[in-house]
Amino acid sequence: MKNLKSNKGFTLIEILIVIGIIAILAAIVIVAINPAKQFAQARNTQRESAVNTVLNAIGQRIADNKGKFDGAFTVGGVTYTCPTLGATKNIGTDVVVNIDLSCLVPTYIPTAVPLDPSGGTAADTLYTVAQDGVGRVTACAPKHAEAAIPDSATFCVTR
Fold it and tell me: Where does the sequence pass through the membrane (predicted)?
């Protein structure tokens, strides 16, 4: 009769049980982290920063221009012309439907007018700006209402 040695190792069922436990733990961690919500919150943080950047730049331009936003100014031999603020318009270089705030670059905004992280372009940044009758300026990020974040709404700042 043959003498069988004891085989060392794991059985197939033991390996399957361990893989199942790892899969369950991974699913719990992914649900707890909720990456869609985390990315949505990151985009909203960028939007809030961008709206404040635009509003600060407009405020600085108004302060430098004795209470008015529109008009021409020259910096370093280059003349920039700012449009008149008024009713709510999207910010972008497509001046047929949007208001072009590129006059704020580079004097008031160092690099470029901020774009919405979910697909804003230079032609349409997906942000809005308006000035009411008493001079208050409001900048908004309509895309701030993310589906992944319950109860999120358009983000606006008025000064």
Answer: 12-33
